[in-house]
Amino acid sequence: VNLLRKNIIARKTKNIAVIEQDILSLPLSFWRNLGKKFIAVGNIPYYLTGKLFRKIFELPQLPDRIVFMVQHEVAKRIVALKPQANLLGSSIQAYGEPRLVKVIKKGNFWPKPKVDSAIILVKHISRERFRKMGLSEEYFFKVLKASFLHKRKILVNSLAKGLGWEKTKLAELLKKAHLPFSSRAQELNIEEFFRLAHLAKGFK
Questions:
Q1: Is 163:146 a contact under the CB 8 Å cutoff?
Q2: What are 50-70's pLDDT values in tens digits?
Q3: Burial class for 68, CB neighbours closer than 10 Å (0-12, 13-18, 19+)
């Protein structure tokens, strides 16, 4: 932090403020002061990846873009599509379009870490899908998390456990969503998850 501050002073940079603080503890007023259009960029602590994405997507005003350096294996999960869909990737894809921009090998760092890194870009960020499907974010993620409750089980079993619904009822729901009874969560794309949650909301 001290080196960064010295560089800013030496370069006479006026549009950078250095805040030495846990980003998860920043008050809502900080984010509001960024204005209506901002970009979230960072080489973030890798253990923070999921929590930081969640923090940002919970903000009243979403960023225009997100550019993060994350662990390579995590980056691959973020951009994964069916049949390798996962909870983290689907959660981010619900808001925007993630793309793996570049892999950064561990040999490029000093001290050398144990893992490779990757730059992730998320663009076209919005809550439009939620509005279009008439879904609250809370309900959508309730269905999404229940879907991935048991990775190796078929969707009916995971949803039955996660939502407490009868399997016969869930079988009807999947049929209405045009999904095979044998579907597993990792085999669904984000549009299918939204359709499933939309139908589940009004399903009796």
A1: yes
A2: 999 999 999 999 999 999 999
A3: buried
Residue 188 in tokens: 């669904």
- Looking at the DSSP bridge assignments, the partners of residue 141 are none
Gap between the Cα atoms of 167 and 173, Å rounded:
10
Write out the two tokens for 198.
């939309």
Identity of the amino acid at 9: I
Closest CA to 204 of 162, 176, 181, 182: 176
Q: Mean of the pLDDT values across residues 110-122?
A: 95
C-alpha distances out from residue 61 to 129, 132, 150, 185, Å: 16, 18, 33, 30
User: What are the b/e assignments for 112-141, b being 16+ CB within 10 Å?
Assistant: eeeebbbbbbbeebeeebbeeeebeeeebb
Structure token digits, residue 103: 């892999």
Cα 70 to Cα 22: distance, rounded to the nearest angstrom: 17
Q: State the CB neighbour count (10 A cutoff) for residue 190.
A: 20
Nearest Cα neighbor of 48 from 74, 85, 76, 77 is: 74
Report whether 95 contacts 125 (CB < 8 A).
yes
- Please name the residues in contact with 71: beta carbons below 8 A apart, sequence gap of 6 or more: 46, 49, 115, 116, 117, 118
